[in-house]
Automatic annotation (TrEMBL):
Name this protein carries in UniProt: Alpha-galactosidase
Species per Swiss-Prot/TrEMBL record: Nycticryphes semicollaris
Name of the gene this protein is made from: Gla
PANTHER family per record: ALPHA-GALACTOSIDASE A, ALPHA-GALACTOSIDASE/ALPHA-N-ACETYLGALACTOSAMINIDASE
InterPro entries: Aldolase_TIM, GH, Glyco_hydro_27, Glyco_hydro_27/36_CS, Glyco_hydro_b, Melibiase/NAGA_C
GO cellular component: extracellular region; lysosome; membrane
């Protein structure tokens, strides 16, 4: 039953780009050729990812979400791409993405229809897995709409996991399993991790601060059940994308977040060891957003090989203090200011709080990573640290 764990994939949280939150289910390429879900969109994103440094800092998956399919399977029962929007077919698109040193992700659904009403994989798990493998796909996001009973849902997720492994191709398996279980029963994360490389826990992320904040609140509330299960090969997706569903999407570089809120999303997704899938238009992105998303120090925290997910250690008025154990006896520390009024505020805490008192014993050097990179010097373990944080902002430190 642990076959999926042995696919050797997702030793660190996967990184890439996904179309959903920004481009939704746009299928009208006649009036909107640059923003519809088509092979052109994914080829252009792959071009930008290879040319403008995204691939080189770790964003390697170019992911297709819902709405790529033709409305019906072909005469052999196989899934097929919409012939108008993907005239070359998915195999050719995968070849193109691979030629750029990137990997291709695709989307299907455990039920008989996807969330947007296209053909689902129910009763076709083996065939669809073989089809994806034959096309050269590297990641499957498997949604949970229209699945009928919880038993069918669970059976579908297990069966697709085994079917993907049977193809012999390395395909990262991204599940929405716990999200669809949660309203009705507590997910068994131990079982889910046996079958999936990462899994979605919470509602869609929107391009808004309210959405980011609710995801952080939910994660802190449920950390006792989810933090311990995360690790190499299996990760918690704190959220997915707006509309229907999707991977843990970074909405930095879109419209809804202020600069400080963008810093908060980047810092907290690193602390939570979340998969980093951007959903934005990389062809038109501000230099500031690009710098933040390509920040190598933050990405190194997210990708830390120890693979432990961070957690909230204290909450005080408008402040939250989070930590994440890293390799080499280091810790990432985030100080988040929830206040949405006034100016920057100071939060002071004792370093004995960190790592159960061990992080800075007998001393540690502290470096600020976000919002800007600078060394703070060496502190003894009984010191206090005072951190100034902007409203809705986060200061990310490494001790």
């Amino acid at each position: 039953a642990t076959l999926a764990l042995d696919n050797g994939l997702a030793r660190t949280p996967p990184m890439g780009w996904l179309h959903w939150e920004r481009f939704l289910c746009r299928t009208d390429c006649a009036t909107d050729p640059h923003r519809c879900v088509s092979e052109r969109l994914f080829m252009e994103m792959a071009d930008v990812m290879a040319a403008e440094g995204w691939r080189d800092v770790g964003y390697e998956y170019v992911c297709i979400d819902d709405c790529w399919m033709a409305p019906a399977r072909d005469e052999n029962g196989k899934l097929q791409a919409d012939p108008k929007r993907f005239p070359s077919g998915i195999h050719k698109l995968a070849d193109y993405v691979h030629s750029k040193g990137l990997k291709l992700g695709i989307y299907s659904d455990v039920g008989n229809k996807t969330c947007a009403g296209f053909p689902g994989s129910y009763n076709h798990y083996d065939l669809d897995a073989q089809t994806f493998a034959s096309w050269g796909v590297d990641l499957l996001k498997f949604d949970g709409c229209n699945s009928g009973t919880l038993e069918l849902l669970a059976e579908g997720y297990r069966r697709m996991s085994l079917a993907l492994n049977k193809t012999g191709r390395s395909i990262v398996y991204s599940c929405e399993w716990p999200f669809y279980l949660r309203p009705l029963q507590q997910p068994n994360y131990t079982e889910i991790k046996q079958y999936c490389n990462h899994w979605r826990n919470f509602f869609d992320v929107y391009d808004s601060w309210r959405s980011i904040k609710s995801i952080l609140d939910w994660t802190a509330l449920h950390q006792d059940s989810i933090v311990k299960i995360a690790g190499p090969g299996g990760w918690n997706d704190p959220d997915m994308a707006s509309g229907f569903v999707s991977l843990s999407q970074l909405v930095i570089g879109n419209f809804g977040l202020s600069w400080d809120q963008s810093v908060t999303q980047m810092a907290m997704w690193a602390i939570m060891a979340a998969p980093l899938f951007m959903s934005n238009d990389l062809r038109h992105i501000s230099p500031e957003a690009k710098r933040l998303l390509q920040n190598k120090e933050v990405i190194a925290i997210n990708q830390d090989p120890l693979g432990k997910q961070g957690y909230q250690i204290t909450k005080d008025n408008n402040f939250e203090l989070w930590e994440r154990p890293l390799s080499g006896q280091a810790y990432a520390v985030a100080v988040l200011n929830h206040q949405e009024i006034g100016g920057p505020q100071n939060f002071t805490f004792s370093l004995t709080f960190l790592g159960n008192g061990l992080a800075c014993n007998p001393a540690c050097s502290i470096r600020q990573v976000l919002p800007a990179s600078r060394d703070w010097g060496v502190y003894s373990w009984v010191s206090s640290l005072s951190v100034e944080v902007n409203p809705t902002g986060t200061v990310l430190l490494k001790a």
